[in-house]
Amino acid sequence: MTIPIPAEDPRHVPNRAVIDPAAITQNTRALGTLLEEQTALMAVVKADGYGHGMLTAARAAIEGGATWLGVAHPASALALARAGLDAQILCWLYEPHTAKIVLPEVLSAGVDVAVGSMDMLALVSAAAREADRRARVHLKIDTGMGRNGVLPWQVREIGAAMREDDFIQVTAAWTHLTSADEVDDPATDQQVEIFDSCVRALEDEVGPIPLQHLANSAATLTRPDLHRDIVRPGIALYGYPPVPADIALRPAMTLTSSLALVKEVPEGQSIGYGRIHRTSRATRLGLVPIGYADGLHRAASDRIEVLVRTESGDRRVPQVGRISMDQIVVDLGPDSTARPGDKVVLFGDAGGEPDAPSAPTAEHWARAAGTIPYEVLTSVSGRVTRRVLS
Q1: Is 136 known to sit in a ligand binding site?
Q2: Model's pTM, two decimal places?
Q3: Residue 281: other Cβ atoms inside 10 A
Q4: Which fold has domain 253-388?
């Protein structure tokens, strides 16, 4: 028997991930300015909208001009479909057990599905027959990622199988670029060459392919020649371009907490597990009740700053010592006026005065932890309450 564990009452926990849908809308509009009129924008809202809330992100992106929504799992697609959003939905990742349970209802709801193997085609075909509805299929072609997708020499075989199946409608061909965020890497052009060759082979089997899509956030920003019929931005929607961008993008998540304790310590005070940090002078330390169980990356320990808001103003201060499961320590400085209860911004938009210090970003945390902003955003755990701005 499964026993549900009640969530912590958000009134009793100070940690918040504040989500600004207006930022997602603004970012979507900005990305749309890069597209030709015939190119649609698919907002990728998988992983619960990169931690921002799937439905929140989807609605905001649609307001900004997105006409497609992309998610990994069929259950996510079904939740989007049930929400009655004005957008076409694509999902692309499922295994046999999930497919048998969910895909018939997904197809009945009009959701498009990706196929990346003969086995996946069989699952979709069976679900379409059960739903008594023709499946709109996007054939995923593996042009070098080595994950989901048919290999180039399998395209004709699967194309012939789809042509002969009355419950399959080939709607699109697509692939995933491995290195579009490295603008000088020749791998992208090599993948495009393979993709185009495969599309020609597929069209020999099934006729004209209505839609093609290749461009992720990086290619949307840097490769207009790859926009084709649909672009699929993900991380850029949430304010973090994976490559330098000429358009303004605004982070949509702000992670906050508050000081639980402030204390004076002498020079040489060790801090945290492993004693990796000792104070270089007498100072005031602040304890913040948020840690790696909330999504902070332990690898960023002693390498990141946070913003503390006090009555005398905002100040960027270093996090010191190891990041613990439930708490971090910050060095407030010997002259700090900070008190328990003062707000702490871990990353995002501090919303202070124009000349006040800015808060760190998810990019700062990513660099400190040796990872990427995608992981920082999606790591913010379920025990951190999301507050959506109106």
Answers
A1: no
A2: 0.95
A3: 12
A4: Lyase, Ornithine Decarboxylase; Chain A, domain 1 (2.40.37)
